[in-house]
Amino acid sequence: MSGGSLAARRIWIDPQRSIQNAEVVWDGSGRIVALRRTRGRVRDVVLVPGLVDAHAHLQLEPLPATAPRDFLPWVGAVMKQRAATAPAGMRAAARAHVKALQRDGVTAFGEIDSTGLSPAVLRAAGAAGRCYQELTGFHLTGAAARQLVQNRRVVGDGRLAAGLSPHAPYSVSGDLMRAAARRCRHLSIHCAEVPEEQQFLRTGEGPFAELLAALGRLPAGFRAPGVGAVRHLQRLGVLRPGTHLVHCQELERGDVARIRDAGAAIVVCPGTIEWFGREVPPVARWLAAGVPVAIGTDSRASNARWSLRGELALLGRMCPALSDRQLLTIATSHGAQALGRPGLGRLRRGGRADLLALPAHDGDDDALLGAFVRGELAPALVLSAGRRIR
Ligand SMILES: [Zn+2]
Predict the structure, then answer these.
(1) What domains can be seen in the chain, in order of their start residue?
(2) Separation of 118 CA from ligand 1 center, angstroms?
(3) What is the distance in A from the centroid of ligand 1 to the CA of 358?
């Protein structure tokens, strides 16, 4: 493949900085070799970095329309559907979902892989990011927990890095969390998603205790940690740089500072908030406190939309205090930060030529950026490592 170049009216190299009348040049491997002002002719477009979908379950298909929207019955429906789907079906779903998201402007993913099939799919699509191998097992202790972690293939490269996703504090034992953290620096954990999760961790009681007992996964003599999810993860030593927490609907007093001080990040999934009719979390307050907040599509099992631009627009409507620049940050550089891939979500020499060209019909570039993050303007061109997707 040969390289290419694009000269634009303005290039946003990251959400804070832009260059007017500039060109970006990339080589045959899709690496940016020059990013500079130009005196030559420019196209009437504005370039922004490719979007980062920081939390996806690409293998999951939509549930039937009659599926429950209460969390625990919904988890049951997802597990049932997953058990009924052959690996070929999951692979096909992941392929189709990657393609649709890429066309929509996503160039990097934080994928939760429950089968080991996703890295090959993402690599074939030329996508960047990090693929997290999912772990569950509330009943697993000691050697059994360590063995499960050792059995997962955690191998990445400069394009698609690897991580582990110990699913959630209610589905992963303390030993399994610690074993995952010892094996890998990069963790994705669903955290404080529903009140029943916090109830279970604080008291050992409620619907989660009943479900785990019914599944035979509540160890005899189990004693609850006695604290909420974030403090529980902190005590286990997994709240640290390289970890991001997904959802965080039910944070306790002091949790935002705990997450920030630990160097961890939060990923929000607006479509899932809407699906379950949950309260909108205080994203603007989290950002003001210094927590990197990223955005994800989650899965089609809890999201009818399936467009990261659509998610971003929804987040903007849910949190009117967020500025256009903040929304772009959430969908680009903060996504990269949450995945521990700081080179992504921005344009720089030596980085990937992951970029979107926005048609610039009217004069005001700030208004154009606003229209893009508010879902009113689709990219005319999507490049993933210099390769044209759209
Ligand atoms: Zn998820």
Answers:
(1) 4-50+346-388 (2.30.40.10), 51-338 (3.20.20.140)
(2) 15
(3) 30
